[in-house]
Write a structure and sequence with these properties.
By secondary structure, the chain is an all-alpha fold. It has a domain of 146 residues: Serine Threonine Protein Phosphatase 5, Tetratricopeptide repeat (Alpha Horseshoe). Helices cover 60% and strands 0% of the residues. It contains nine helices and no strands. Helix 4 packs antiparallel against helix 5 and helix 5 runs antiparallel to helix 6. The longest helix has 59 residues.
Length: 284
Amino acid sequence: MDDRQTQIRQGAGLEESRVNHDLIDFLNKWSSPVLFVLAAAAVAWWGMQMLEKRKIAKIDRAFGDLDAALTGGNPSPDSLQTLATEYEGVRAVPELALLTTTDVYLGAFIRGVEPGAQLNPATGQPVDDADLLDETQRGAYLTSAGELAQRVLTMTEGNEQKAMLTIQALIRLAVVAEGKRDFAGARASYTRAAEVAEQNGFPILSSFASHRADNVDSLEGIKALPTQAELKALPGEAVMDMDTLNELLNSSMPAIESDPSGTDEIDPTPTEEPAAETPATGSP
């Protein structure tokens, strides 16, 4: 047998004992801090998971509320602006809510009807005449539309991930400028929209905005329709309102006399006409 296998190293037991004591001392010294760090890491990971779940739930709730506000095709501007404030910073929900409100205000300006008014399906006019807007009210809605579009532009400009929203805001600002007959401002907004669309890979939108910018001059020759107050009567003609016209029509209709008995029924028995008398002839 090899002598090296039979040799017993002196002090081996003492060395192993010292190693065990060193391990015990190390654990006694560092076990609590290490366990604390591990526990803190576990709590932090759990907290991050909970925050992520809440964030996802808030995003789902935000888009759900936005979809509910748009259901029916007649959204409330106040509700949309409340959503924009409540979900500020949640994806694109605030910008979409404000752009939709801008469209509602532009529609009110163009149609001259209060937003949310009930319309007559046959005529397209509001059921309540109080929902018709005068020129001052239409101008106020146009101004509000421009303010909201500018707000969206401020929120999104320079953010490549929101370039589409920037383009939409610029196009709406151009429409507002057209409504105010500020054709230079409209051309500038369309041109800027075309540039942003080209830079971010939206060629169709870039072409559309460029075409609109090139054709703004054609709008300058279009005059606004005169209001009722601006209409001048032709010689011998009087401009009358609807009440006067209705009174005139009613007065020109023949009055129908009622049956004194109150039945107003027509006797179905035909009236026989007397036979014509035969002229007498002399006898031959």
